Amino acid sequence: MYLLLSKSYVKLDNRLFGFFLIILSIRVLKSLFYAFSTIEPIWFLQTGPAFFLLIGPALFNYVAVVGVFSTFWSRKWKIHLFVWVLAVCLMMVVMPFWNFRDLYKDILLPIINFQWLLYIMLSGLLVLKGIKRGKRLTLLENWLITLLLSNLILWICLSIIGFDYFITGSLVFSLLFYVIFLFFQFKKRLRSKVFPKNKGWKPVNIVPHSQKLLQQLQKIMEEQKLYADPKLKIADLADKVDATPHELSKFLNVYLNQSFTEFVNNYRIEEAKNLLLSSDNRYTIEAIGNLAGFNSKSAFYKAFKSRTGLTPAKFNR
């Protein structure tokens, strides 16, 4: 709840991780109730396991957004999560747990567990995709690998271990959670990199002007095509919207969840796509990158593939 509500952690990845932790914690709490409850029915248990379907998608969306390994999934996380929330609501309305106990326990719960495992594996593929061969693992990559391994261990405890040892899942969750929590508590420098705070920044101050500032930025970028200048700096753009570079950087990070480079490159990629699709295109791919504002062929290829999933040459086919 702290990660979801704190004004210090307004970045999207922090919010998604908080949501993931809440859903996972509720599942662990349910297993605890299930193992020790002596009175039937207990309302907390009667809600059923339908919302367990949100654990895997929440984990996957966090990995996609925090690592930006797949621009498609990092942009479509809202639709992705909405589909599963809708599925959970439909299951709880159409097939309430108290009327379909045997169906849930014998058929649906194994399917739900398999879905969680599948999302752990898909999240692992995203991480592997982002790891650069021959280079040392970054702090973020180490963190994501640790998170996925912890999920896998917990999945084994909650999905395979029999009822007589059902409490094992809760104990393992507590152990993993507090070990990781204490690690980040004592390693504040590492914590600030994995869960960045917005120190000294008050998002509430920018909200009344955020839409106006965004419209200014879009109008200037589209009409004046500042992105075409490979030497464009944040100070140049800030001067155009009557803001300091620091204020503009904060706005892009908090309101758009983008760095200055990402913001400008989005316009450059769109310009490059238009040039590539032009029927009378007479430019080479390298020339198109230069016209769009990239200062090198390698920077153009890297940014283009990161956003579209294709190289400029394949996109042009």
UniProtKB/TrEMBL annotation:
InterPro entries this protein is in? Answer: Homeodomain-like_sf, HTH_AraC, HTH_AraC-typ_CS
HTH araC/xylS-type domain: which residues? 211-317
Enumerate the GO terms in the molecular function aspect. DNA-binding transcription factor activity; sequence-specific DNA binding
Q: Where are the transmembrane segments?
A: 16-36, 48-69, 81-101, 107-128, 140-161, 167-184
What keywords are annotated for this sequence in UniProt?
Answer: DNA-binding, Membrane, Transcription, Transcription regulation, Transmembrane, Transmembrane helix
Alphabetical list of PANTHER family matching this protein:
ARAC-FAMILY TRANSCRIPTIONAL REGULATOR (PTHR43280)
Q: What is this protein called?
A: AraC family transcriptional regulator
Question: To which species is this protein native?
Answer: Flagellimonas lutimaris
